[in-house]
Amino acid sequence: PSGLYFVATPIGTARDITLRALDVLASADVIAAEDTRSLRKLMEIHGVPLNNRHIVAYHDHSGAGARAKLLAALDDGQSVAYASEAGMPLIADPGYDLSRAAAEAGHLVTVAPGPSAALAALTLAGLPTDAFFFAGFLPNASGARRKRLEELAAVPGTLIFYESPKRVAASLRDMAEVLGDRPAALCRELTKKFEEIRRDTLATLATGLEDAPVKGEIVVLVDRHRGDSVSDGDLDTDLRAALQGNSV
Ligand code: SAM
């Protein structure tokens, strides 16, 4: 049926695509992608024919014109599939403006969900999963990065960051200094040949990378702030004050 279909693509291994995602790509009237080449290749791998359709490039920043064309197709009653280069669209990837515009115009907006590096990493990190905060990419400049980390310091859940191999050591160092030397995990090249998980404290992970830099795609996860435990002395004073208050 007519509507906007967000389609998740693999984050490494090509076979991590869902059967429904392939169905949507096979049947959509219009196919749009953040990266047309990688989607064409993925469709080739899985034997999904283009059948006279061409893949339209779309990025939230490609301007209102590109978005208007996709919205016009929806207005015409067509189905539009949209995929980003890897993983879930909209997750540190384009699609948000398109999603809002389509929903505001009253179109069906739905998703063929699939892998995302954030949840894959959370599954493997060995850190609590009951509550987590996806913080995406930190700013590049160290000053701005530290400021953002200060804002995140009190979040009561596991923090999830996307990182680049070039600056991950510097980020881990900033994290250790601003957040304290918390337990953390570095998840690299998930679902690929050189998948690797390092579980250690922030400072130790930073030192390891300073000694031997790594390549590839990286997710960093950091344990939540553990509130200062109340000391016996404080408890004693607090109890005394409370009891005195009650006896008045
Ligand atoms: N939309 C994608 C998702 O759902 O995960 C994320 C796109 S974002 C532009 C790319 C970043 O995701 C990379 O820089 C890296 O931090 C992370 N990432 C993507 N694939 C990964 C993988 N296989 N292993 C580790 N991190 C990955």
UniProtKB/TrEMBL annotation:
It catalyses: cytidine(1402) in 16S rRNA + S-adenosyl-L-methionine = 2'-O-methylcytidine(1402) in 16S rRNA + S-adenosyl-L-homocysteine + H(+). This is Ribosomal RNA small subunit methyltransferase I. It comes from Phaeobacter italicus. NCBIfam families: 16S rRNA (cytidine(1402)-2'-O)-methyltransferase (TIGR00096). The keyword DNA-binding does not apply. Catalyzes the 2'-O-methylation of the ribose of cytidine 1402 (C1402) in 16S rRNA. It is found in: Cytoplasm. InterPro entries: 4pyrrol_Mease, 4pyrrol_Methylase_sf, 4pyrrole_Mease_sub1, 4pyrrole_Mease_sub2, rRNA_ssu_MeTfrase_I, RsmI_HTH. Belongs to the methyltransferase superfamily. RsmI family. Residues 4-205 form the Tetrapyrrole methylase domain. Keywords: Cytoplasm, Methyltransferase, rRNA processing, S-adenosyl-L-methionine, Transferase. It is an enzyme of class 2 (transferase). The gene is rsmI. GO terms for cellular component: cytoplasm. GO terms for molecular function: rRNA (cytosine-2'-O-)-methyltransferase activity. Its EC number is 2.1.1.198. Pfam families: RsmI_C (PF23016), TP_methylase (PF00590). SUPFAM superfamilies: Tetrapyrrole methylase. It comes from the Bacteria.
